[in-house]
Amino acid sequence: MTTTEDGILIRTTINGDPTTFLASQRDSLLEALRERLNMTGSKEGCNNGNCGACSVLLDGRLVNSCLVLAAEVEGARVDTIEGMAEGEQLHPLQRAFLEEAALQCGICTPGFLVASRALLAENPRPTEEEARFWLAGNLCRCTGYDKIIRAVLKAAGEMDGKR
Amino acid sequence: MQAVRYARASSVDEAITMLREGGETARVLAGGTDVIVQARERRRHIDLFVDIKHIPELMSLTLDAGGGLTVGAATPLYRVYGDAEVTRRFSALAESTHVIGGTAIQGRASLGGNLANASPAADSIPAMIALGAVARVAGPAGPREVSVADFCTGPGRNVLQPGEFITSIHFPARPAGSGSAWERFIPRNEMDIAVVNAAVSLTLAGDVVTEARFSLGAVAPIPLSVPTAAEALVGRPLTDATIAAADEAAKAAATPISDMRGTIRQRKHLSAVLTERVIRRAVERARA
C-alpha cells in the first residue's frame, strides 16, 4: 500500500487478475469496486452488514464488502460476481437461478450467487436447511426465498454429478 | 464515512505505538462488523483504524497440552465454531459464535470485537462468562488480564483504558465430567438480536454438581454472571427440583427493560426457560 496525494494505491488480485487501484483511506471495498473499478455487480443494499447484496469472497471467505475497508485488501485475493461466468458461459448457479426464476428485481441476486458459490465450495451437497442457514445473511424481498433455495439445490445436484 | 486513516500493525508493540500516536480517536480494527458501521453512521468518532489482523498471535486458535483454549482477539468466528475440539469441549462457545450475524459476518467478526463492543445482548459474552474466560489485554502500561465477567461496565462501555486492546481470550481447561451449553430466544429463525440469551458450564461427579457457572444476556445493562443459579445446583444431586431452583434464581437475577424486542415480563420468563434448557443440554454433554 502506497500513500499518494490522491489517496492510497492498493495492490490486490480481483477475479484472478492482479489489480492496482487508487482509493481513499475511508473507502469501503464496495465503494472501491463500484466507483473506482466500475465493477457494479456488487450492490449496496443496507450498507451495514444486514442484507448481503454486496457479498464477495476475500481470500476465499464470504464477507460483506460494505464492511471491509478497501485498504484491507492490499495483498489479498478478492472474488466478485463479475468473475463467476466464464465469458458467455454462465456458472451452473446462474443458469439454475434463471431456470427456476429465482429472482424478480435482481438487486439481491449477485450477492446470493456469490454466497451460494461459497456454500457449494464448502458443502457440495447441502440439505435445504443447510442452504437456508448459510444464506440467512442474504435478504430478498421479492421471491420469498423458496425459488432461490430450489435453484441452489438444483445447481448443487448438477455440479456434484459432474465431479 | 468521516475522514479516516488506515494503518496495518504487524506486532502488538507496533499496534500499541500506532494507537498512542493516534490518540483517543484511534481504534483497533478486527473484523470491522461493528466499528465500521459505527464510524459510517457517526455513532463513534474514529480518525484512525489500526488493523490488527496481520499480527499472527491475534489470529490464532490454540489448544494447549493441558486442555486450555486461547483464541486470538481478531480470529474470525467461523474458525472458532469450525474447530471440532472447540465444539466438543467448549460447546457453549461454538453454539453462540455459530449464530452471530450470518455467514458473511462470521467470516470477519471476532470474539475480541464482540467483547469490546460490550452490547448487553452480545451472543458470545455469556458463553465466555460461563466458561470462565479471561481477556488478555495489551496497552501502553503493559499487559494485563481481565475476567470476561468483569469486562463490560455498561452498554457499549468496558474496562479498557486509552490505548488498550484485547489480544486474546483464554479459556481454562475443562475438568472431566464437564458440559456447557448456550441458547438464545429470537422471534426469527436467524439473523436477529437476542431477546434473552443464556449459558451454563457445569461439572458432574456422578449425580452431584460440583461446579457451575451461569450467565444471562439482554436482561441487564451488561451480560450478567448469575452466581445464585450456581448456588442452587452446586453440592447437590441434580434433580428436577434443583434445576427448578436454578431457573427461579436466574429469573430473580434478571433486571431487564421493556423495549422493541421484548417486555420485562417476557424476558424474566425467558431467563428461567432458557436456563432450564441449557442446564439439561449441558448435563447431557457432561454425561456423554
Structural overview:
The complex is a heterodimer of chains A (about 160) and B (about 290). With about 160 residues, chain A is of the alpha+beta class. Chain A is built from five helices and six strands; from the N terminus they run E-E-E-H-E-E-E-H-H-H-H. Chain A folds into two domains: about 1-85, Beta-grasp domain (Ubiquitin-like (UB roll), Roll), CATH 3.10.20.30; about 90-160, [2Fe-2S]-binding domain (DNA polymerase, domain 1, Orthogonal Bundle). In chain A, strands 1, 2, 3, 4, 5 and 6 form a six-stranded mixed beta sheet that branches. In chain A, helix 2 packs across helix 5 (about 145-160). The mean pLDDT of chain A is about 95. Chain B is an alpha+beta fold and about 290 residues long. Chain B has three domains: about 5-50, Uridine Diphospho-n-acetylenolpyruvylglucosamine Reductase, domain 2 (2-Layer Sandwich); about 55-170, Uridine Diphospho-n-acetylenolpyruvylglucosamine Reductase, domain 3 (2-Layer Sandwich); about 180-285, Enolase-like, domain 1 (2-Layer Sandwich). In chain B, the strands form four sheets. In chain B, strands 4-5-10-6-7 form a five-stranded antiparallel beta sheet, with helices on one face. A four-stranded antiparallel beta sheet of chain B has the order 11-12-13-14. Chain B has a three-stranded parallel beta sheet with strand order 1-3-2, covered by helices on one side. The model of chain B has no long low-confidence stretch (mean pLDDT about 95). At the A-B interface, strand 5, helix 3 and helix 4 of A face strand 1, helix 2 and helix 6 of B.
Overall geometry of chain A: elongated
Annotation, overall tally of beta strands of chain B: 14
Q: Which stretches of chain A of 5+ consecutive residues score pLDDT under 50?
A: none
Measured between the Cα atoms of the first and last residue of chain B, the distance is 51 Å
Per CATH, the architecture of the largest domain in chain B is 2-Layer Sandwich
Q: Nearest-angstrom radius of gyration of chain B?
A: 19 Å
Structural class by helix and strand composition of chain B: alpha+beta
Briefly, what CATH class of the largest domain in chain B?
Alpha Beta
Measured between the Cα atoms of the first and last residue of chain A, the distance is 40 Å
How would you name the oligomeric state of the polypeptide chains in this document? heterodimer
Number of domains of chain B: 3
Average pLDDT figure of chain B: 97
Using the 3D structure, state the CATH architecture of the largest domain in chain A: Roll
* Overall pLDDT level of chain A: 96
